[in-house]
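User: C-alpha coordinates for both sequences below?

Assistant:
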Amino acid sequence: MKLCQNYKLFFLLCLPLMAFDIAAYYDLDRLALEAEADKGSFYHNYTKIYSQYFAPIRNQNLKILEIGVWQGASVRLWEGYFPNADLHFIDIDYSHLTYMPSRAHLHICDQSNVSQLKSFVQKTGGDWDIIIDDGGHTMEQQQVSFKTLFPYLRSGGMYIIEDLHTSYWKEYGGKGGQMHPAAARDSTTEFLKRLIDDINYVGARTAKANHDTDLHSISSELTGYRNKILSLTFYDSLCIIVKR
Protein backbone atom coordinates (compact mmCIF):
# COMPACT_ATOMS: atom_id res chain seq x y z
CA MET A 1 0.00 0.00 0.00
CA LYS A 2 1.37 3.40 -0.90
CA LEU A 3 2.36 5.68 1.93
CA CYS A 4 -0.25 8.34 1.39
CA GLN A 5 -3.04 5.77 1.25
CA ASN A 6 -2.10 4.65 4.76
CA TYR A 7 -3.43 7.63 6.69
CA LYS A 8 -3.14 6.02 10.12
CA LEU A 9 0.54 5.23 9.60
CA PHE A 10 1.27 8.76 8.50
CA PHE A 11 -0.62 10.22 11.42
CA LEU A 12 1.51 8.18 13.82
CA LEU A 13 4.68 9.24 12.04
CA CYS A 14 3.83 12.86 12.58
CA LEU A 15 3.39 12.60 16.32
CA PRO A 16 6.33 13.74 18.47
CA LEU A 17 9.12 11.20 18.27
CA MET A 18 8.85 9.71 21.74
CA ALA A 19 10.70 6.43 21.11
CA PHE A 20 13.96 7.05 19.29
CA ASP A 21 15.04 4.06 17.17
CA ILE A 22 18.83 4.18 17.30
CA ALA A 23 19.21 1.21 14.94
CA ALA A 24 17.17 3.00 12.25
CA TYR A 25 19.29 6.10 12.77
CA TYR A 26 22.59 4.25 12.44
CA ASP A 27 21.35 2.54 9.28
CA LEU A 28 20.40 5.75 7.50
CA ASP A 29 23.36 7.71 8.83
CA ARG A 30 25.79 5.06 7.60
CA LEU A 31 24.43 5.46 4.07
CA ALA A 32 24.65 9.24 4.35
CA LEU A 33 28.27 9.07 5.47
CA GLU A 34 29.13 6.66 2.65
CA ALA A 35 27.47 8.99 0.15
CA GLU A 36 29.20 12.01 1.72
CA ALA A 37 25.80 13.69 2.02
CA ASP A 38 25.68 16.66 4.37
CA LYS A 39 22.40 15.29 5.79
CA GLY A 40 24.51 12.90 7.89
CA SER A 41 25.94 13.21 11.38
CA PHE A 42 29.23 14.70 10.22
CA TYR A 43 27.37 17.89 9.28
CA HIS A 44 23.64 18.70 9.65
CA ASN A 45 22.59 15.34 11.14
CA TYR A 46 19.14 15.48 9.53
CA THR A 47 19.41 11.69 9.42
CA LYS A 48 18.54 11.62 13.12
CA ILE A 49 15.11 13.06 12.26
CA TYR A 50 14.63 11.39 8.89
CA SER A 51 15.35 7.91 10.22
CA GLN A 52 12.34 8.09 12.53
CA TYR A 53 9.98 9.28 9.79
CA PHE A 54 11.32 7.20 6.90
CA ALA A 55 12.25 3.83 8.43
CA PRO A 56 8.63 2.54 8.71
CA ILE A 57 7.94 3.39 5.05
CA ARG A 58 11.36 2.70 3.57
CA ASN A 59 10.34 -0.27 1.40
CA GLN A 60 7.09 1.16 0.07
CA ASN A 61 6.58 2.21 -3.55
CA LEU A 62 7.04 5.91 -2.91
CA LYS A 63 7.34 8.78 -5.32
CA ILE A 64 10.00 11.18 -4.06
CA LEU A 65 11.26 14.54 -5.28
CA GLU A 66 14.33 16.33 -4.01
CA ILE A 67 15.22 19.87 -5.04
CA GLY A 68 18.97 20.40 -5.34
CA VAL A 69 21.57 17.94 -6.60
CA TRP A 70 25.01 19.59 -6.60
CA GLN A 71 27.48 16.66 -6.81
CA GLY A 72 24.80 14.00 -6.35
CA ALA A 73 25.41 12.87 -2.77
CA SER A 74 21.70 12.84 -1.93
CA VAL A 75 20.95 10.96 -5.14
CA ARG A 76 23.31 8.22 -4.01
CA LEU A 77 21.89 8.30 -0.49
CA TRP A 78 18.23 7.91 -1.45
CA GLU A 79 18.97 5.32 -4.14
CA GLY A 80 20.57 3.22 -1.42
CA TYR A 81 17.93 3.88 1.21
CA PHE A 82 14.63 3.67 -0.72
CA PRO A 83 14.90 0.49 -2.85
CA ASN A 84 11.42 0.70 -4.37
CA ALA A 85 10.99 4.46 -4.72
CA ASP A 86 10.50 6.40 -7.92
CA LEU A 87 13.17 9.06 -7.35
CA HIS A 88 13.29 12.45 -9.06
CA PHE A 89 15.70 15.36 -8.61
CA ILE A 90 15.73 18.88 -10.02
CA ASP A 91 18.47 21.49 -10.29
CA ILE A 92 19.31 24.43 -12.53
CA ASP A 93 22.31 22.57 -14.01
CA TYR A 94 24.44 19.48 -13.45
CA SER A 95 27.89 20.91 -14.03
CA HIS A 96 29.02 19.82 -10.54
CA LEU A 97 27.64 16.28 -10.71
CA THR A 98 30.14 13.56 -9.76
CA TYR A 99 27.75 10.69 -9.01
CA MET A 100 25.79 9.28 -11.94
CA PRO A 101 22.44 7.84 -10.82
CA SER A 102 21.68 4.19 -11.33
CA ARG A 103 17.88 4.61 -11.38
CA ALA A 104 16.95 8.14 -10.25
CA HIS A 105 15.66 10.69 -12.76
CA LEU A 106 17.43 14.06 -13.07
CA HIS A 107 15.61 17.10 -14.43
CA ILE A 108 16.72 20.62 -15.30
CA CYS A 109 14.42 23.07 -13.52
CA ASP A 110 14.73 26.43 -11.75
CA GLN A 111 12.99 26.10 -8.39
CA SER A 112 12.23 29.84 -8.30
CA ASN A 113 10.48 29.74 -11.69
CA VAL A 114 6.77 28.92 -11.36
CA SER A 115 6.25 28.08 -15.03
CA GLN A 116 9.23 25.70 -15.05
CA LEU A 117 8.02 23.99 -11.89
CA LYS A 118 4.53 23.54 -13.32
CA SER A 119 5.98 22.21 -16.57
CA PHE A 120 8.03 19.73 -14.56
CA VAL A 121 4.94 18.62 -12.63
CA GLN A 122 3.02 18.17 -15.88
CA LYS A 123 5.87 16.04 -17.23
CA THR A 124 6.23 13.85 -14.15
CA GLY A 125 2.61 13.71 -13.04
CA GLY A 126 2.97 15.12 -9.53
CA ASP A 127 1.42 12.97 -6.76
CA TRP A 128 4.54 13.10 -4.59
CA ASP A 129 4.76 11.19 -1.34
CA ILE A 130 7.82 13.14 -0.17
CA ILE A 131 9.27 16.44 -1.38
CA ILE A 132 12.58 17.64 0.07
CA ASP A 133 13.85 21.15 -0.61
CA ASP A 134 17.64 21.15 -0.39
CA GLY A 135 18.07 23.64 -3.21
CA GLY A 136 19.48 27.14 -3.26
CA HIS A 137 18.15 28.05 0.20
CA THR A 138 17.11 31.63 -0.67
CA MET A 139 13.80 32.91 0.65
CA GLU A 140 12.38 33.25 -2.86
CA GLN A 141 13.45 29.75 -3.90
CA GLN A 142 12.06 28.07 -0.80
CA GLN A 143 8.74 29.88 -0.82
CA VAL A 144 8.09 29.73 -4.57
CA SER A 145 8.83 26.00 -4.54
CA PHE A 146 6.54 25.33 -1.59
CA LYS A 147 3.64 27.42 -2.91
CA THR A 148 3.89 25.78 -6.34
CA LEU A 149 4.57 22.16 -5.40
CA PHE A 150 2.58 21.64 -2.19
CA PRO A 151 -0.72 21.24 -4.12
CA TYR A 152 0.87 18.28 -5.96
CA LEU A 153 1.74 16.43 -2.76
CA ARG A 154 -0.43 13.40 -2.01
CA SER A 155 -2.73 13.30 1.00
CA GLY A 156 -0.55 12.21 3.89
CA GLY A 157 2.60 13.29 2.07
CA MET A 158 5.50 15.20 3.58
CA TYR A 159 6.97 18.47 2.32
CA ILE A 160 10.36 19.08 3.94
CA ILE A 161 12.38 22.29 3.86
CA GLU A 162 16.01 21.95 4.88
CA ASP A 163 18.59 24.51 5.98
CA LEU A 164 16.15 27.03 7.40
CA HIS A 165 19.05 28.75 9.17
CA THR A 166 19.49 30.74 5.95
CA SER A 167 16.37 32.67 6.99
CA TYR A 168 18.66 34.47 9.44
CA TRP A 169 21.41 35.35 6.93
CA LYS A 170 21.25 38.49 4.82
CA GLU A 171 22.87 36.95 1.73
CA TYR A 172 19.93 34.54 1.40
CA GLY A 173 17.21 37.08 2.13
CA GLY A 174 17.34 37.14 5.92
CA LYS A 175 18.26 40.09 8.08
CA GLY A 176 21.45 39.15 9.95
CA GLY A 177 24.48 36.87 9.75
CA GLN A 178 26.15 34.04 11.63
CA MET A 179 27.43 36.34 14.37
CA HIS A 180 24.07 38.09 14.80
CA PRO A 181 21.35 35.99 13.13
CA ALA A 182 18.01 37.67 12.51
CA ALA A 183 15.02 36.68 10.39
CA ALA A 184 13.53 39.18 7.97
CA ARG A 185 9.77 39.70 7.91
CA ASP A 186 9.49 37.91 4.57
CA SER A 187 11.89 35.08 5.46
CA THR A 188 10.85 31.47 5.07
CA THR A 189 10.73 30.86 8.83
CA GLU A 190 8.32 33.79 9.21
CA PHE A 191 6.25 32.47 6.29
CA LEU A 192 6.02 29.07 7.98
CA LYS A 193 5.10 30.62 11.32
CA ARG A 194 2.13 32.30 9.63
CA LEU A 195 0.93 28.90 8.43
CA ILE A 196 0.27 28.03 12.08
CA ASP A 197 -2.73 30.38 11.88
CA ASP A 198 -3.99 28.46 8.85
CA ILE A 199 -3.68 25.14 10.68
CA ASN A 200 -5.82 26.53 13.50
CA TYR A 201 -8.39 28.28 11.30
CA VAL A 202 -11.08 25.59 11.26
CA GLY A 203 -11.00 25.21 15.02
CA ALA A 204 -11.08 28.97 15.53
CA ARG A 205 -14.06 29.45 13.18
CA THR A 206 -16.16 26.44 14.20
CA ALA A 207 -15.03 25.87 17.81
CA LYS A 208 -14.48 22.27 16.70
CA ALA A 209 -10.97 21.15 15.74
CA ASN A 210 -12.44 18.58 13.40
CA HIS A 211 -11.98 18.62 9.64
CA ASP A 212 -14.15 15.53 9.34
CA THR A 213 -17.29 17.49 10.18
CA ASP A 214 -19.35 19.46 7.66
CA LEU A 215 -17.36 22.57 6.79
CA HIS A 216 -19.81 23.82 4.18
CA SER A 217 -20.59 27.00 6.10
CA ILE A 218 -16.97 28.15 5.88
CA SER A 219 -15.97 26.46 2.61
CA SER A 220 -15.44 29.81 0.85
CA GLU A 221 -12.91 30.75 3.54
CA LEU A 222 -10.85 27.58 3.32
CA THR A 223 -7.63 28.21 1.42
CA GLY A 224 -5.42 25.33 0.37
CA TYR A 225 -3.35 25.78 3.51
CA ARG A 226 -6.29 26.10 5.93
CA ASN A 227 -7.88 22.99 4.53
CA LYS A 228 -4.89 20.85 3.55
CA ILE A 229 -2.13 21.22 6.14
CA LEU A 230 -2.35 18.51 8.78
CA SER A 231 0.76 19.40 10.76
CA LEU A 232 3.80 21.65 10.80
CA THR A 233 6.79 20.34 12.77
CA PHE A 234 10.02 22.28 13.35
CA TYR A 235 13.43 20.89 14.15
CA ASP A 236 16.76 22.71 14.08
CA SER A 237 17.01 24.18 10.56
CA LEU A 238 14.29 21.79 9.32
CA CYS A 239 10.52 21.88 8.90
CA ILE A 240 8.23 18.98 7.97
CA ILE A 241 4.78 19.89 6.65
CA VAL A 242 2.29 17.02 6.33
CA LYS A 243 -0.65 17.29 3.98
CA ARG A 244 -4.14 16.44 5.21
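Moving on to the next sequence.
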Amino acid sequence: MRSFGSDNHSGVHPEILNAIIEANKDHAIAYGGDTYTIKATEVIKKHFGETAEPFFVFNGTGANIVALRACTNTFNSIISSETAHIAVDECGAPEFFTGASLKEIATCDGKLTPELIKPLLIELGFEHHSQPKVVYISQCSELGTVYSVDEIKELACFLHSYNMYLHVDGARLANAAVTLGKSLKEITADCGVDILSFGGTKNGMMLGEVVIAFRPQLVENMKYIRKQCAQLYSKMRFSSCQFIPYLENNIWLKNATNANYMAQLLKEKITQKGSFEFTQKTEANILLLKMPKTMSEKLLKRHFFYFWNEAAGEIRLVTSWDTTEEDIDNFVKDI
Protein backbone atom coordinates (compact mmCIF):
# COMPACT_ATOMS: atom_id res chain seq x y z
CA MET A 1 0.00 0.00 0.00
CA ARG A 2 1.13 3.53 -0.82
CA SER A 3 -0.49 6.25 1.24
CA PHE A 4 -1.00 10.00 1.40
CA GLY A 5 -2.68 9.60 4.80
CA SER A 6 0.31 10.48 6.96
CA ASP A 7 4.09 10.61 6.91
CA ASN A 8 3.80 8.16 9.82
CA HIS A 9 2.72 5.56 7.25
CA SER A 10 6.13 5.53 5.58
CA GLY A 11 8.82 2.98 6.38
CA VAL A 12 12.21 3.29 8.02
CA HIS A 13 15.26 4.60 6.20
CA PRO A 14 17.84 1.82 5.57
CA GLU A 15 20.63 3.69 7.37
CA ILE A 16 18.41 4.01 10.44
CA LEU A 17 17.66 0.28 10.37
CA ASN A 18 21.39 -0.43 10.10
CA ALA A 19 22.05 1.78 13.12
CA ILE A 20 19.55 -0.23 15.17
CA ILE A 21 21.12 -3.50 14.05
CA GLU A 22 24.55 -2.19 15.00
CA ALA A 23 23.25 -1.16 18.43
CA ASN A 24 21.98 -4.71 18.97
CA LYS A 25 25.52 -6.08 19.33
CA ASP A 26 26.69 -7.14 22.76
CA HIS A 27 25.33 -5.72 26.05
CA ALA A 28 24.95 -2.06 26.99
CA ILE A 29 24.17 -0.13 30.16
CA ALA A 30 20.44 0.57 30.44
CA TYR A 31 18.51 3.83 30.87
CA GLY A 32 20.86 5.99 28.82
CA GLY A 33 24.24 4.98 30.22
CA ASP A 34 25.22 3.38 26.90
CA THR A 35 27.74 4.69 24.39
CA TYR A 36 25.07 5.27 21.72
CA THR A 37 23.05 7.62 23.90
CA ILE A 38 26.20 9.46 24.93
CA LYS A 39 27.21 9.86 21.28
CA ALA A 40 23.69 10.92 20.26
CA THR A 41 23.75 13.60 22.95
CA GLU A 42 27.01 14.96 21.52
CA VAL A 43 25.58 14.98 17.99
CA ILE A 44 22.43 16.80 19.12
CA LYS A 45 24.51 19.45 20.86
CA LYS A 46 26.50 19.87 17.65
CA HIS A 47 23.32 20.57 15.67
CA PHE A 48 21.34 22.54 18.27
CA GLY A 49 24.10 24.24 20.30
CA GLU A 50 25.85 23.62 23.60
CA THR A 51 22.86 24.86 25.59
CA ALA A 52 20.79 21.96 24.23
CA GLU A 53 20.09 19.23 26.80
CA PRO A 54 18.40 16.18 25.22
CA PHE A 55 16.12 13.67 26.94
CA PHE A 56 15.12 10.70 24.79
CA VAL A 57 11.51 9.51 24.99
CA PHE A 58 9.21 7.02 23.27
CA ASN A 59 6.87 9.09 21.10
CA GLY A 60 5.48 12.49 20.15
CA THR A 61 2.74 12.72 22.75
CA GLY A 62 5.23 11.62 25.39
CA ALA A 63 7.67 14.28 24.27
CA ASN A 64 5.01 16.97 24.48
CA ILE A 65 3.78 16.04 27.94
CA VAL A 66 7.33 15.79 29.33
CA ALA A 67 8.21 19.19 27.86
CA LEU A 68 5.01 20.84 29.07
CA ARG A 69 5.33 19.38 32.58
CA ALA A 70 8.80 20.89 32.81
CA CYS A 71 7.27 24.30 32.06
CA THR A 72 4.19 24.29 34.25
CA ASN A 73 2.62 23.92 37.67
CA THR A 74 -0.92 22.62 38.13
CA PHE A 75 -2.26 26.17 38.48
CA ASN A 76 -0.81 27.20 35.09
CA SER A 77 -2.37 27.19 31.65
CA ILE A 78 -0.96 26.12 28.28
CA ILE A 79 -1.85 28.22 25.24
CA SER A 80 -2.15 26.67 21.78
CA SER A 81 -4.05 27.06 18.53
CA GLU A 82 -7.35 25.19 18.33
CA THR A 83 -5.90 22.95 15.60
CA ALA A 84 -2.77 22.07 17.61
CA HIS A 85 -1.82 18.43 18.05
CA ILE A 86 -2.09 18.72 21.85
CA ALA A 87 -5.62 20.12 21.47
CA VAL A 88 -6.93 17.64 18.90
CA ASP A 89 -4.97 14.41 18.82
CA GLU A 90 -3.52 13.65 22.25
CA CYS A 91 -6.63 12.46 24.12
CA GLY A 92 -6.26 15.08 26.85
CA ALA A 93 -2.81 13.78 27.82
CA PRO A 94 -1.19 17.22 28.31
CA GLU A 95 -3.91 18.29 30.76
CA PHE A 96 -3.95 14.88 32.46
CA PHE A 97 -0.18 14.76 33.05
CA THR A 98 0.44 18.45 33.79
CA GLY A 99 -2.74 19.32 35.67
CA ALA A 100 -2.63 22.62 33.79
CA SER A 101 -5.55 23.86 31.72
CA LEU A 102 -5.39 24.17 27.95
CA LYS A 103 -6.44 27.45 26.34
CA GLU A 104 -7.14 27.18 22.62
CA ILE A 105 -7.04 30.08 20.17
CA ALA A 106 -8.80 30.15 16.81
CA THR A 107 -6.45 30.91 13.92
CA CYS A 108 -6.85 31.22 10.18
CA ASP A 109 -3.65 29.35 9.33
CA GLY A 110 -2.75 27.30 12.42
CA LYS A 111 -0.17 29.85 13.57
CA LEU A 112 -0.14 31.93 16.75
CA THR A 113 0.96 35.56 17.02
CA PRO A 114 1.53 37.90 19.98
CA GLU A 115 -1.66 39.73 19.01
CA LEU A 116 -3.71 36.54 19.29
CA ILE A 117 -2.10 35.55 22.60
CA LYS A 118 -2.19 38.90 24.39
CA PRO A 119 -5.92 38.87 25.32
CA LEU A 120 -5.32 35.71 27.39
CA LEU A 121 -2.59 37.39 29.42
CA ILE A 122 -5.00 39.67 31.27
CA GLU A 123 -5.39 36.69 33.61
CA LEU A 124 -1.80 37.05 34.83
CA GLY A 125 -1.66 37.74 38.56
CA PHE A 126 -5.39 37.14 39.12
CA GLU A 127 -5.66 34.32 41.65
CA HIS A 128 -9.06 33.09 40.43
CA HIS A 129 -7.71 32.22 36.97
CA SER A 130 -5.15 29.67 35.85
CA GLN A 131 -1.90 31.42 35.07
CA PRO A 132 -0.58 31.34 31.47
CA LYS A 133 2.96 29.98 31.51
CA VAL A 134 3.78 28.34 28.17
CA VAL A 135 2.75 28.71 24.56
CA TYR A 136 2.80 25.61 22.38
CA ILE A 137 3.31 25.88 18.62
CA SER A 138 3.93 23.26 15.94
CA GLN A 139 6.64 23.77 13.34
CA CYS A 140 5.33 23.15 10.78
CA SER A 141 1.72 23.61 11.91
CA GLU A 142 -0.95 20.94 11.62
CA LEU A 143 -2.23 22.84 8.58
CA GLY A 144 1.13 22.60 6.84
CA THR A 145 2.07 26.26 7.33
CA VAL A 146 5.54 27.28 8.49
CA TYR A 147 6.61 29.94 10.99
CA SER A 148 9.34 32.23 9.67
CA VAL A 149 12.45 32.85 11.73
CA ASP A 150 11.22 36.38 12.51
CA GLU A 151 7.82 35.07 13.61
CA ILE A 152 9.40 32.64 16.09
CA LYS A 153 11.77 35.30 17.41
CA GLU A 154 8.89 37.72 17.88
CA LEU A 155 6.86 35.10 19.76
CA ALA A 156 9.78 34.14 22.01
CA CYS A 157 10.66 37.75 22.82
CA PHE A 158 7.02 38.56 23.57
CA LEU A 159 6.60 35.56 25.88
CA HIS A 160 9.87 36.13 27.70
CA SER A 161 8.73 39.66 28.54
CA TYR A 162 5.89 38.01 30.51
CA ASN A 163 8.19 35.38 32.08
CA MET A 164 6.61 32.67 29.91
CA TYR A 165 8.06 29.85 27.85
CA LEU A 166 7.85 28.90 24.16
CA HIS A 167 7.51 25.18 23.45
CA VAL A 168 7.90 24.02 19.87
CA ASP A 169 6.49 20.70 18.71
CA GLY A 170 9.03 19.74 16.07
CA ALA A 171 7.46 16.53 14.79
CA ARG A 172 8.03 18.00 11.30
CA LEU A 173 10.82 20.41 12.22
CA ALA A 174 13.01 19.01 9.43
CA ASN A 175 10.38 19.90 6.84
CA ALA A 176 10.17 23.45 8.19
CA ALA A 177 13.96 23.82 8.12
CA VAL A 178 14.03 22.76 4.47
CA THR A 179 11.29 25.26 3.62
CA LEU A 180 13.14 28.08 5.36
CA GLY A 181 16.58 27.05 4.11
CA LYS A 182 17.90 27.17 7.68
CA SER A 183 19.69 24.84 10.06
CA LEU A 184 17.85 23.18 12.93
CA LYS A 185 19.59 25.47 15.41
CA GLU A 186 18.71 28.61 13.46
CA ILE A 187 14.98 27.93 13.80
CA THR A 188 15.04 26.86 17.46
CA ALA A 189 17.81 27.86 19.88
CA ASP A 190 18.82 30.93 17.88
CA CYS A 191 15.20 32.14 17.89
CA GLY A 192 14.80 31.93 21.65
CA VAL A 193 12.85 28.67 21.80
CA ASP A 194 12.88 27.38 25.38
CA ILE A 195 12.04 23.73 24.88
CA LEU A 196 11.59 21.50 21.83
CA SER A 197 9.97 18.17 21.05
CA PHE A 198 12.14 16.91 18.19
CA GLY A 199 10.80 14.00 16.17
CA GLY A 200 12.05 11.79 13.39
CA THR A 201 9.41 9.07 13.06
CA LYS A 202 7.59 11.08 10.39
CA ASN A 203 10.85 11.45 8.49
CA GLY A 204 12.49 8.03 8.31
CA MET A 205 13.06 6.93 11.90
CA MET A 206 11.49 3.84 13.48
CA LEU A 207 10.53 5.10 16.94
CA GLY A 208 11.44 7.58 19.58
CA GLU A 209 11.62 11.35 19.95
CA VAL A 210 13.79 13.64 22.01
CA VAL A 211 12.89 16.55 24.28
CA ILE A 212 15.56 19.24 24.01
CA ALA A 213 15.60 21.86 26.76
CA PHE A 214 17.51 25.09 26.16
CA ARG A 215 16.99 26.62 29.64
CA PRO A 216 18.77 25.30 32.79
CA GLN A 217 15.62 25.75 34.89
CA LEU A 218 13.76 23.39 32.54
CA VAL A 219 16.50 20.76 32.75
CA GLU A 220 16.60 20.61 36.55
CA ASN A 221 13.77 18.12 37.10
CA MET A 222 13.47 16.68 33.62
CA LYS A 223 14.82 13.21 34.39
CA TYR A 224 12.25 12.76 37.18
CA ILE A 225 9.43 14.09 35.00
CA ARG A 226 10.41 11.70 32.21
CA LYS A 227 10.31 8.75 34.61
CA GLN A 228 6.93 9.74 36.09
CA CYS A 229 5.46 10.11 32.60
CA ALA A 230 6.51 6.53 31.74
CA GLN A 231 8.85 7.82 29.01
CA LEU A 232 12.16 6.44 30.31
CA TYR A 233 13.22 3.66 27.93
CA SER A 234 15.36 0.97 29.58
CA LYS A 235 17.05 -0.08 26.33
CA MET A 236 17.48 3.52 25.30
CA ARG A 237 20.24 2.76 22.82
CA PHE A 238 17.70 1.48 20.27
CA SER A 239 16.03 4.87 20.21
CA SER A 240 18.99 7.21 20.67
CA CYS A 241 21.23 5.40 18.16
CA GLN A 242 18.94 6.48 15.33
CA PHE A 243 19.70 10.15 15.89
CA ILE A 244 23.40 9.61 15.15
CA PRO A 245 23.11 8.85 11.41
CA TYR A 246 19.88 10.87 11.18
CA LEU A 247 21.80 14.04 12.03
CA GLU A 248 25.41 13.23 11.12
CA ASN A 249 24.58 11.89 7.65
CA ASN A 250 21.97 14.59 6.93
CA ILE A 251 19.21 11.99 6.57
CA TRP A 252 16.85 14.51 8.17
CA LEU A 253 17.64 17.01 5.42
CA LYS A 254 17.53 14.61 2.46
CA ASN A 255 14.29 12.98 3.59
CA ALA A 256 12.49 16.23 4.35
CA THR A 257 13.67 17.71 1.06
CA ASN A 258 12.06 14.85 -0.85
CA ALA A 259 8.82 15.07 1.14
CA ASN A 260 8.54 18.82 0.56
CA TYR A 261 9.38 18.54 -3.12
CA MET A 262 6.80 15.82 -3.64
CA ALA A 263 4.15 17.97 -1.94
CA GLN A 264 4.79 20.78 -4.39
CA LEU A 265 4.77 18.36 -7.31
CA LEU A 266 1.51 16.82 -6.12
CA LYS A 267 -0.09 20.25 -5.80
CA GLU A 268 1.11 21.25 -9.26
CA LYS A 269 -0.26 18.10 -10.91
CA ILE A 270 -3.59 18.28 -9.05
CA THR A 271 -3.96 21.91 -10.16
CA GLN A 272 -3.51 20.83 -13.76
CA LYS A 273 -6.49 18.49 -13.44
CA GLY A 274 -9.07 21.03 -12.29
CA SER A 275 -9.90 24.12 -10.26
CA PHE A 276 -9.54 22.64 -6.78
CA GLU A 277 -9.50 24.99 -3.81
CA PHE A 278 -6.39 24.69 -1.67
CA THR A 279 -7.46 25.96 1.73
CA GLN A 280 -3.95 26.58 3.10
CA LYS A 281 -0.56 27.39 1.66
CA THR A 282 1.49 24.26 0.93
CA GLU A 283 4.68 25.23 2.73
CA ALA A 284 6.01 21.84 3.83
CA ASN A 285 4.65 18.34 3.10
CA ILE A 286 0.94 18.79 3.88
CA LEU A 287 -1.79 19.72 1.39
CA LEU A 288 -5.31 20.74 2.38
CA LEU A 289 -7.85 21.04 -0.43
CA LYS A 290 -11.51 20.73 -1.23
CA MET A 291 -13.01 18.40 -3.81
CA PRO A 292 -16.49 17.02 -4.50
CA LYS A 293 -17.38 14.25 -2.07
CA THR A 294 -18.28 11.89 -4.92
CA MET A 295 -14.71 12.25 -6.18
CA SER A 296 -13.00 11.88 -2.79
CA GLU A 297 -15.06 8.79 -1.97
CA LYS A 298 -14.06 7.15 -5.24
CA LEU A 299 -10.42 8.05 -4.68
CA LEU A 300 -10.54 6.47 -1.23
CA LYS A 301 -11.23 3.11 -2.86
CA ARG A 302 -7.75 3.23 -4.42
CA HIS A 303 -5.76 5.54 -2.15
CA PHE A 304 -5.54 6.17 1.60
CA PHE A 305 -5.96 9.71 2.94
CA TYR A 306 -7.99 11.51 5.60
CA PHE A 307 -10.80 14.02 5.54
CA TRP A 308 -9.79 17.18 7.39
CA ASN A 309 -13.28 18.67 7.34
CA GLU A 310 -15.68 16.17 5.85
CA ALA A 311 -18.67 18.51 5.94
CA ALA A 312 -16.76 21.03 3.83
CA GLY A 313 -15.31 18.40 1.48
CA GLU A 314 -11.81 19.22 2.70
CA ILE A 315 -9.18 16.47 2.55
CA ARG A 316 -5.58 16.25 3.76
CA LEU A 317 -2.76 14.76 1.73
CA VAL A 318 0.68 14.19 3.26
CA THR A 319 3.82 13.30 1.35
CA SER A 320 6.70 11.36 2.91
CA TRP A 321 10.44 10.89 2.67
CA ASP A 322 9.84 7.90 0.40
CA THR A 323 7.01 9.31 -1.76
CA THR A 324 7.80 8.84 -5.43
CA GLU A 325 6.66 10.50 -8.64
CA GLU A 326 4.96 7.23 -9.51
CA ASP A 327 2.85 7.54 -6.34
CA ILE A 328 1.81 11.02 -7.40
CA ASP A 329 1.12 10.07 -11.02
CA ASN A 330 -1.09 7.17 -9.93
CA PHE A 331 -3.11 9.45 -7.66
CA VAL A 332 -3.48 12.20 -10.23
CA LYS A 333 -4.42 9.67 -12.91
CA ASP A 334 -7.32 8.52 -10.74
CA ILE A 335 -8.42 12.13 -10.24
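User: Anything stand out in the second?

Assistant: The longest strand covers residues 131-138.
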